[in-house]
Every structure is written in C-alpha cells, then in structure tokens.
Amino acid sequence: MAKKNDDFFVEKKAWSIVKDELFGCYFKPYVSKILHTHRPLVYVDCFAGKGKFEDGNDGSPLIALKIIDECLLNTTMQNAQIEATFIDLNYADDLQENLKSYPKARIISGKYENNINSILRKKDNCNVFLYIDPYGIKALQCSFFDDFAKGKFNTIELLINMNSFGFIREACHALGTTFDDKFLFDDLVEYEPTKMDASEKSIKELNEIAGGDYWQKIIEAYKKGEIDGYSAEAQFAEQYCLRLGKSYTYVLNMPLRIKRGQRPKYRLIHATNHRDGCLLMVDNIYNRWESLQEIQSGGQLALWSENFDNQITDENDIEEKTIEHFSQCINWTSLHDALAIFFMKHGPICSTGDVKKILKKFEKDGRIEILRNPKTTDQGRPAVFMSEGKGKTVSVRWIG
Ligand SMILES: C[S@@+](CC[C@H](N)C(=O)[O-])C[C@H]1O[C@@H](n2cnc3c(N)ncnc32)[C@H](O)[C@@H]1O
Questions:
Q1: Which atom of ligand 1 is nearest to the CA of 19?
Q2: What is the rounded average pLDDT for all residues in the chain?
C-alpha cells in the first residue's frame, strides 16, 4: 500500500525498528573493529531521513552517531578519525535540527546519486561504510555499487535494504504482466513506491538497477506459469547477489520476515570485499534476531529460524549443510574463507560458532583435519583455537 511520505516519520513502525536494530547491531562491532585498522572511517547514510521519528524514536542517523560516540569514547586507538555524512533529498532541515548536538555530522541536502561520488573523492585508504535505505528501488543503480568497489579504499562495505518484491512487481509491469499479492504489499507499507510501465525506458531502468537483464528471464518464466511470484523474488535476490559478487567478494543475502510463518518481505544485503566483515555481520545479525522477536507485538517476528518453506532450521540441518560444504575442502582451505562462502550460500542460519563447534566434533572423529598456526599455546599445549587473525591462521581439509 502506498503511503504519503511524511507519514513515515510520524511513528516508528515495527518494520523500521527491525531495520534499524539490525543496522545498529552490526554497526557497533564494525566501528570498534575498524578503528583498529588505524585508518579513518568514512560513514555515509545515503538516505538518512529526518534523524528522529516524531514519536521520539531515533532514526538511523542518531543510532549511528550515538554508536560512533560510544566507540570513540571506549577505543584504545589514538587519533581515531570518523567522518559521518547524512544525505537526504527532502529532510535536510529536520536533520539539522535533530542532529544539532552532533556539530561534526555533515548534512547534505540532495540526491545520493548526485553527491556520493564527491563525498568519496580523496578518501583513498579510508574504510568506507555506506548505509543504503531508500523507499523504493529507483535510486539503486548497480553501476554505482560497481564503481564504489573500484575505489582505492582500505575497505568498503554496503548495507542495502532492497525491496525485492517491489522490484518484481515493477519488472512484471515492464514486461506486460502483473504480480500483486495484496496481503504482502499491504503489510510491507511502501512509501514512494517505484512505478514502471511496459516501455523500453522502464526496461532500461530495471536493467540499470539489477545490473543486467537476467531478471527478464525470471519474469518470462513467471509469465509462462513455470514459477510463482515468490520464487521469482527468491531467484531475483539470488541472482542480484551473484551480480553484486562481480564487484564484491562477499555478499550476504538476508531475507527478512515481518511475521512468523510468512514468506520473506524484504532483503537486507551486505556486500564487502572484507571477509571478516562478512563473518562479523553473520554473528551479530544471528545473535540479534531472537531478541527482535519481541519487537512485533505478541512476539510474532521471526527472521531466520524458518527457511523459505517455513521449516525450522535445526541442528541436524546445520550439520548436514556443514558436511555438504566442508566436504568440498579437499585441499587445505582457510577456515574463515570457507565459513564466509558457507554463509553466502545459506544466509545467517546460525552463528559462526555453531559451525565451528560441529567442525571441532568432526576433528575429534577424524573426519576433518585442522591445521593451526601457531600449533601450540604459550604453555606448549596443542592449540585448539578456531579463529583467524592477530597472527593466527586456521586451515581445514576434509578427510571423509
Ligand atoms: C526509508 S527512508 C530512510 C529512513 C532512515 N534510514 C531511518 O531509519 O530513519 C528513505 C529516505 O530517503 C529520502 N530520499 C528519497 N530519494 C532520495 C534520493 N534520491 N537521495 C537521497 N535521499 C532520498 C527520503 O526523503 C527518505 O527520508
């Protein structure tokens, strides 16, 4: 259901609370870790909104600024530098007012598309984090994301809220068909929904958003009745992530549900070239989702405990997936590399610790070899660690 834009900031709805919670639960550990690179952090909220909702709840800008302040206060790093920029096309004045206790925050009135390149200019060797939370899909040109990946940054991460059902609906219009699930779109409550028609112009725009024309085959299959609209959305999201994968090595596809037992309504997509950023995202998102169940009144919110068919993802399922994935590591493989690929394939269905626990059991049973460097602890005992970094490496090799 389309709503007037201004309504969005009157009261913070469950859906926005979930989005911002997930953003915050990653951003905090991200900031504290990234400061250890001794390089500046350039944070940009590309569709910032008003900063604060009229019911007093913080929007993404205040959430980010509070986290930044807390991290700067607690870090042991000397001269930590963080530059935070907030872009909004309609609400720069509200941002000025609501962020006035953060004089260093930079506010830009205008379009993300017109401003992002100048913000990122001369930011070589910095760590860049872009939060991309638009209403619709129109501003999400894939070529921009490709260009960001080519920047000479120390690291780059994108967190994108993608209304993939909105994409499918408009892709259907562009190819002369329809997909309309009243229940789904009513529940989603869209502001400024993107509208496309059956024209070459719309097809071109959708190609630009998707970063190719692969979506057309999906819609053609839907048109022929070979797949339903929900499979079309899932296939699109999968292929979109593969497409982002041309520029970013690690892309996580996180389907979000609003209510237990429902199909995903939205995709949160995390793209980075930084392997440990991907794993940090998995752990923080997974650990957070349980408490998010309380956000929706009646504890109705479920994010990843159920798969697409609403089956519960249980320990056996995770063990089976671990065997299926790690049995392909017939040569020595970095544990963190293998884990990142596991979660790209399956989404954050569990924590990295859950998979590591299963691998340790396999190590004991002689099904997998684990090579740790250093091999022994300071006391000379065999090392048992399962995390890489800070001079430690872990490699795995499947035996069978
Ligand atoms: C979903 S809201 C952002 C909400 C915000 N992340 C929060 O949690 O408070 C999307 C915002 O994008 C703004 N907007 C729309 N088109 C834009 C564009 N092309 N560039 C920048 N901002 C835009 C709208 O004014 C709106 O405030």
A1: 8
A2: 89
